[in-house]
Amino acid sequence: MSEQLAVGLLGYGTVGSGVAQIIHEHQEKLQHQIGCEVQVTKALVSDMGKEREVPSGHIEFTTDADDVINDPKIDVVVEVMGSIEQARGYILQALNNHKHVVTANKDLMALHGTELLQVANDKRCDLFYEASVAGGIPILRSLTEGLASDQIQKVMGIVNGTTNYILTKMANDNRSYDDVLAEAQELGYAEADPTADVEGYDAARKVAILATLSFSMNIDLDDVCVKGISNVTEEDLAYSKQLGYTMKLIGLANRTEDQVEVSVQPALLPNEHPLASVKDEFNAAYVYGEAVGETMFYGPGAGKLPTATAVVSDLVEVMKNMRLGVNGNSAVLPQYEKNLKADEDIFAKYFIRLHARDLPGTFSSLTSLFSELDVSLEKILQLPVPESDVAEIIIVTHNASKSAYKSMLKQLNELDVVVEVKSSYRVEGEEA
Amino acid sequence: MSEQLAVGLLGYGTVGSGVAQIIHEHQEKLQHQIGCEVQVTKALVSDMGKEREVPSGHIEFTTDADDVINDPKIDVVVEVMGSIEQARGYILQALNNHKHVVTANKDLMALHGTELLQVANDKRCDLFYEASVAGGIPILRSLTEGLASDQIQKVMGIVNGTTNYILTKMANDNRSYDDVLAEAQELGYAEADPTADVEGYDAARKVAILATLSFSMNIDLDDVCVKGISNVTEEDLAYSKQLGYTMKLIGLANRTEDQVEVSVQPALLPNEHPLASVKDEFNAAYVYGEAVGETMFYGPGAGKLPTATAVVSDLVEVMKNMRLGVNGNSAVLPQYEKNLKADEDIFAKYFIRLHARDLPGTFSSLTSLFSELDVSLEKILQLPVPESDVAEIIIVTHNASKSAYKSMLKQLNELDVVVEVKSSYRVEGEEA
């Protein structure tokens, strides 16, 4: 093996230039860890004419990806260009050329992770992707290391900064979803088309990656049951608060024996749950392992230096493995058959808010419905709705199966005394 | 290098037997990570006759430490026996025999860490001690890895489970310190002599280790300014709560340019601070790095499997380094001269609770005293003390130097209108 390790970048935007900067500025520390020199030698860009910051004069820029992925002198390819199909093609070619790969591309890993990891494994190459989930938090490495001596039972993640920012502002300032979204767009925290964030699709990709790794099952994006935050109202947040809950968009991966559930939804957490205090655009992952118990990792989910730092930590790992001759061992390829829970086996507590006629007998119609469905109630809050003959009723159930929950919603809507079921949410992070 | 790495244990109690168990049960995964077999070959015990769980038949027990530390076939010595002087002697001898060392001994590392790391460095050996601070949280590794591409500005840790349990119960159930301590002792959460925990000495050892690593300065135990929780009252907790704060025993390591402050004290955090939700016997470390920003790690601070897992993660690191030929590089030896802040340079907000005569003019005497000391006030709460002519007054200041704070306390006690200054605490985790 040569005494210099060469890195080729696919993409030289915010993250790519951050990676080059960190490798340049921390060269000595990196050499101490790895045992040899590390250099970024080439970078793929789309426009040669663009002015860019280059930390040292040695990076050769090119607009031809082959210059990077077919260069026999390059040991590791770092993909930070985004896109799905093109990135997939480049990474496959790099792996086929026996190059190790580090990527920050969550869309790619959520859709094609298992295929790419399989190819990497066949070629005895490393494929690392720490930066794809919660950039500033070493969550994938912690899960992988944890797995070496533990069994992961549950992961709950706040893995989308935009939605956490919106929910935090709505709750703190009693403002509407539309109002806060518009502000977030102005401030650059939300995109002009916010669909991927607010409908939970971005979080779903990350939770698919987390679940695949945690349970060693090939969890597809289609396996993730997704609900976003665009229907959350100020009233929902106000009543949640009154009952001691904080609403978060939670990516959930949950195992009971050999069956798993993977979902993304706005869920209510008790205020004292560690995830409840994760504010604004921060990310966090709460992990329950059989041996170690509860742990949580909290930090920035994005940003140039946090993300580039995650990429560099992957690079260090690849290079240590190269020198150890153990590349291709660290990838946790799905080992088990996917075994998803049916609705009958998914248990949770539910928060249900409805408007009912404020008449004698309303309450007993409601409670007898719950009792028929064998769902017991933990909390009930009833308030008059001003200037109407309607009562606002909030119910928090004890554990109920998802199928019982669905029947419950249907039958509540059919009850004469119920004007409208306004909203319902899962309650997580409490004992049953 | 041989194709089997041999580990010798000094101590085979809870943690030692946990290490042997994990190495046995996860042998295949460990081999995948390291590239060769790992075995515990010998263990030092004090009583040969005692019955003990042994995961495989291959461990040779001995009552003579030399059998372990002078065995040329042993590559790594794991010290999990406790004690200070004896452990120090064994570790020095092991290092002099060119063996790598993993220890879980916080007392030893806080008192002799710099000396031992220096010897390890001279011998090009690794000396790792992840399990010495917050067993279930990979905080030392995160700091070390973070340091490779970041500068740590601040660490705030809840690093003592006993005191966190006591403060949590006092606050939640409105109970007295003595009452909760007695219960904690009954339940085994506090020792018969609780001094080391409740007076903050245990936390001080851990924060000395954290500060030494974070700032690369040789922070001695004597450099840590320590205050425990034995004088905390129910009233303090009730008024803190009323003002939106949660009290925690905080180990603080804080840098401003090249000057540092290291302390342990009960401090008030805003309820929405991530550390405020760390309950019961859990530990957590909040880290502020220049590049990555805010991160927090949360988990169990002790326990057989969490601590043994931390020891095994150190072992994996040592063994990877052996195969890489980079042992002795990872140790972060103090590189900078210690430069401690004077009281004039330590700034914080303070919560002060006092009893004053309920007379006209009381308030203006108080406020003119603060104004003379150039300390401005953020919050004031005044309540009558039932059946007395005394008022309960709680003041939260804006940032003040520690020297101004000391003058303030002295002069408040000398004021005619003040009956007694009941208590005072730092307020941390807010903007100035």
In CATH terms, the superfamily of the largest domain in chain A is Dihydrodipicolinate Reductase, domain 2
CATH architectural label of the largest domain in chain A:
2-Layer Sandwich
| Number of DSSP-assigned strands of chain A | 17
CATH class of the largest domain in chain A: Alpha Beta
CATH topology of the largest domain in chain A: Dihydrodipicolinate Reductase, domain 2
Strand content of chain A: 25-35%
- The number of helical elements of chain A comes to 14
Main sheet summary of chain A: 11 strands, mixed
Distance between the termini of chain A: 56 Å
Radius of gyration of chain A: 24 Å
Unreliable stretches of chain A (pLDDT < 50, length at least 5) are none
Tally the structural domains of chain A: 3
Output mean pLDDT of chain A: 92
The dominant shape of chain A is elongated
Structural commentary:
Two copies of one chain form a homodimer. In chain A, 37% of the residues lie in helices and 27% in strands. Chain A has 432 residues and is of the alpha/beta class. Chain A folds into three domains: 154 residues, 3-Layer(aba) Sandwich (Rossmann fold); 162 residues, Dihydrodipicolinate Reductase, domain 2, CATH 3.30.360.10; 85 residues, Alpha-Beta Plaits (2-Layer Sandwich), CATH 3.30.70. In chain A, the strands form two sheets. In chain A, strands 7, 8, 9, 10, 11, 12, 13, 14, 15, 16 and 17 form an eleven-stranded mixed β-sheet that branches. A six-stranded parallel β-sheet of chain A has the order 3-2-1-4-5-6, with helices on both faces. In chain A, helix 5 runs parallel beside helix 10. The N and C termini of chain A lie far apart (56 Å). The mean pLDDT of chain A is 92. At the A-B interface, helix 2, helix 6, strand 12 and helix 12 of A face helix 2, helix 6, strand 12 and helix 12 of B. Chains A, B: It comes from Texcoconibacillus texcoconensis.
